Structure formats: structure tokens, C-alpha cells
Amino acid sequence: MRIDAQIVVIGGGISGLSLISELTRRRSTGHRIILVEAESTLAHHTSSRSAQHLSPAYGPPPVRELTERTVAQLAKGLEDLEEPVIWPCPTVVVGSKAQLAAESTFYSTRISRDAVIELCPELSPMHPEALVGGLFEDDAVRLDASSLLEWHRRIATEAGVQILTDAPVTAATYDDDAWEITAGSNELRSPLVVNAAGAWADEVSQLFGAEPLGLQPLRRTAALVSLEQPLAADHPVVVTADGGWYYRADPVGALISSGEAEPQDPCDSQPHPGQMQALVEEINAVTSLRITEIVRSWTGQRTAAPDGVPVCGFDPELAGFLWLAGQSGYGFQTSTALARAAADLLLEDLIGTWCSVETAQALSPTRFHQR
């Protein structure tokens, strides 16, 4: 049986879910919006493996603008939710003089080595040349990712959006002003399609006849670890300026992560054998954090566009095919603003004046067709 829709969204991660909830609020209904997800559960890959930390200082200028707008919106709270989904979580970037100079941004305040150690006493063993000081970001926030994902899903489905799981897209043709799509056992027809397929976005695009954009999945691994002495709940997130590792407080003890950005084909990525143990030994060697056990580890894929800026816009060579991909490590922190931009394009055919002209242009996939 064929299902007729007005908009089909491919991908059930934070991008797809935030878009369908935005669309339902804008249209006052989710009727004839369908989201298809290849896996049996939503947010199975990258979105369920987030570090849940949003930093306005992270990323190129378009990402920073989108982050500011997303954090500002989330800070207002979400309807029907009593608990906030974000809360303050300062960040300290530490490193050598040259490293800190390269990382300094408008959002950061330079602080001395003594000030860093006052905030994070466990860093006192670091060599003075490796830790000359830090960059303090007081507007970074922690995120309750699972609550946000569930809120988007609930808002959309209660408004009538249909979500189909176990529905990988395997074929697509354009006929009579609409796309005919095979997704699992479902046959769909819609004039508008959104490619929010994350690491698989380039592969999905080829089923529609689009030219791939060169999106590259990059693996990054994290772990929950136990400590001899727990960190305070409000302990700053600590990030090395060279991107080697970072950690933050967690009820288990701490979350630690390597700074890897290893290219990889789209897959259900898993940690390399011994990878987290090596990171534990490295952190224990230069700090007094005293990690005692790896409780759980996982690997996610951040999918980046060639220029490091997310892609949000209609494909210039395909009718009704909108890209919403390439968010790299900025998926959650840009999600609300990118959903708004995508909804603008789908409903109004342009991004509204709430977003700068420069950022709107930077997001467009046409930039890859002008080379």
C-alpha cells in the first residue's frame, strides 16, 4: 500500500526529530509528515552517543551563530517539561602558550595556570610548559540529550507525524512532481524529501540521483569511568587545547573522551581494542584524577562536510530534495536553529531574517556545486 505524504524525513537522529517537531508546531499539525528510520530504534547511532556538552566557542562562525540561537531557545525551557534540558557547565581549555593562542575565541577568557588549578586541582601535576594557563568559557552548558530527543518525538507523534522504523530507504524515483520512495516494506510518495540520514547521507542521496557532497563520518570514542575521589557535580569540563582528550563530571565518576577524528565508512562504530585503557593511562600519568575502572565505552560517528560547516538547503539539481546533514560534532548544539532553518526552506522556500545572510549562504549545498 502506498502512503501519500507532504514531507518525508529520512533519519531518526536529533536532526530529523528536531525538524519534525518544528514542522508540527509551525503547521499546527503533523498530518502527512512521515519520518523513516533504518534502525529498529530512533537515535541509534551518533545521537545516542553524544557527550551532551554544548559550547558556543566550538566550531566555525556559522556553527557558533546556530549554537547561540539553539542554546538561547533551549534555555527558555520546553513546553510540558518541568525539568530543564540544559544547565550551566563551564569549560576550561588547557594547554601550552602556542596552543591557547590558536584556540582563543570571543567566547573565552584567558586565565592563569594558578586559576586553572584552583578550578581543577587535579591538573596541578601537569608540566608548567604543557599547562601555562587556560581559556575559561562560562556560557557552555550540559544537555539532557535523551529527554530532548524524547520530547521532539512526543511533540511530533502527538500532532500526527508517522514514524516508521526498520525502514531503510532502498529506492527512489521522481515522477509527476513527487518522489516515490521505498523504505523497508513501505511505499511512500511525497513532493518533499529531507535527507537527515547522518553518516549515511551521501549514500542516501545517490538513491535519489544526487551528487554526493563528500560527507565524511569521523569516529570518536568515549567512556564512563570510576574515580578514587568523585568530581563535584559543577566541576568544569576540561579540554586539552591540542584536542587530545577531555573529561567532565558524571554520577558514575567521569566521562572521558579521546580527541580522535578518524575517517571511517558509515557503520555501527565500536571502540578499538585497548583504546580507552590507553587513554586512561595517559590521563592518569599527567593528572591526579586517579581513574580506577572503565565502566562502559562507546564510539560514535560525527559526519563532517568538506568545509566543516553543516549543510541545510535544497539540492540545486534535484526537485524537492533538501539536505540536513554534515553537522559534525555540532548536532545537538545547532539542532534547534537548523530545524528552524530547514522548516523555513520547506514551508517558505527561504531562511528567515532571524539568521544572518552569511550563515544562510554558508549552509547551502550550492557551495559544493560552484567549485
The CATH topology assignment of the largest domain is FAD/NAD(P)-binding domain
> What does the largest sheet look like?
9 strands, mixed
The CATH level-2 architecture of the largest domain is identified as 3-Layer(bba) Sandwich
| Regions with little confidence, pLDDT below 50 for 5+ residues | none
Question: What share of residues are in beta strands?
Answer: 25-35%
CATH superfamily assignment of the largest domain? FAD/NAD(P)-binding domain
The coarse silhouette is: elongated
What is the CA–CA distance across the termini? Answer: 42 Å
Q: What is the total tally of β strands?
A: 22
SSE-based structural type = alpha/beta
CATH class group of the largest domain: Alpha Beta
- Quaternary structure of the protein: single chain
Number of helices: 9
As for the number of domains, it is 2
**Average predicted local confidence, pLDDT:** 93
Organism: Kocuria subflava
Keywords: Oxidoreductase
Protein name: FAD-binding oxidoreductase
Domain FAD dependent oxidoreductase: 7-345
Descriptive notes:
The protein has 371 residues and is of the alpha/beta class. The protein has 2 domains: 2-52 and 145-214 and 307-368, FAD/NAD(P)-binding domain; 91-137 and 216-304, D-Amino Acid Oxidase, Chain A, domain 2. Helices cover 27% and strands 30% of the residues. It has 9 helices and 22 strands. It has helices at residues 14-27, 61-75, 97-103, 113-119, 145-158, 201-207, 275-286, 331-348, 357-363; strands spanning 2-4, 7-10, 33-36, 53-54, 86-88, 91-95, 109-112, 133-137, 141-143, 162-164, 169-175, 178-183, 186-190, 192-195, 216-227, 237-240, 245-250, 253-258, 262-263, 291-304, 311-314, 321-325. Helix 1 packs across helix 8 (331-348). It is elongated and about 70 Å long.
